Amino acid sequence: MKLLIIEDERALRESIAGYFQEEGVICETSADYASATEKIALYDYDCILLDIGLPDGNGLTLLQELKAAGKEEGVIIISARNSLDDRITGLNLGADDYIVKPFHLAELKARVMALFRRRSFRGNNQLQYDCINIDLPTMEVKVDGNLVTLTKKEYDILLYFIANKGKVISKNALAEHLWKDEIDLADSFDFIYTHIKNLRKKLADNSGKDFFKSVYGIGYKFS
């Protein structure tokens, strides 16, 4: 999962990022309206945590722009404003959820994971595809009933492909999803080939099937 945290309060921003990173979530952060707008224009995220009281703009305006641009990220507003009008306005503009400060990080995580499941896997805790079963809360993967040990990157790749099953995924899209803006520093896609190769073998060894179809010059399709 890839998360963008838009929050001007440094301590809270770093606390949220650290908490989710310990859970294996890829996190990017923005402290103001301008940098958030730039990141949203350049990259895609699974979920955006949006503070509406930014120093150089209104987070609700940013939400409007995000929706107008056709971006499909889930959005959870994090705000110190607790009025009914603010909640209704945020939800009517397209936010998926609204949580009031101060909040427990465990509750925030539960809301993020619920949103991720709802948008990607119809709210299920158990993800089943063919002979592959994934327990999302525990990140346990079984293939044909056999427990398969995956690295964090292999697990993220598997989830990404199942969420986009049947679609051709380019190497650029996959690299950006997994490595965020650090991908700009890479000079080849060797790391993509390596992770796909290892995951492909683990799935095939336990199922006898090759789920990854190479699309020459573009990327892969999971089917």
Which key phrases capture this entry?
4-stranded antiparallel sheet, alpha/beta, 223 residues, Rossmann fold, 2 domains
Characterise the protein shown here.
This protein has helices at 10-22, 33-42, 59-68, 84-92, 105-121, 152-163, 171-179, 190-207; strands spanning 2-6, 26-30, 47-50, 53-54, 57-58, 74-79, 97-100, 126-129, 132-135, 140-143, 146-148, 168-170, 212-215, 219-222. The protein folds into two domains: 2-121, Rossmann fold; 126-222, Arc Repressor Mutant, subunit A (Orthogonal Bundle), CATH 1.10.10. The model has no long low-confidence stretch (mean pLDDT 87). It contains eight helices and 14 strands. Helix content is 44%, strand content 24%. The radius of gyration is 18 Å and the shape is elongated. The protein is of the alpha/beta class and 223 residues long. InterPro entries: CheY-like_superfamily, OmpR/PhoB-type_DNA-bd, Sig_transdc_resp-reg_receiver, WalR-like, WH-like_DNA-bd_sf.
Reconstruct the topology from this structure.
Layout: E1 2-6, H1 10-22, E2 26-30, H2 33-42, E3 47-50, E4 53-54, E5 57-58, H3 59-68, E6 74-79, H4 84-92, E7 97-100, H5 105-121, E8 126-129, E9 132-135, E10 140-143, E11 146-148, H6 152-163, E12 168-170, H7 171-179, H8 190-207, E13 212-215, E14 219-222
Parallel strand pairs: 1-2, 1-3, 3-6, 6-7
Antiparallel strand pairs: 4-5, 8-9, 9-10, 10-11, 12-14, 13-14
Helix pairs in contact: 6-8
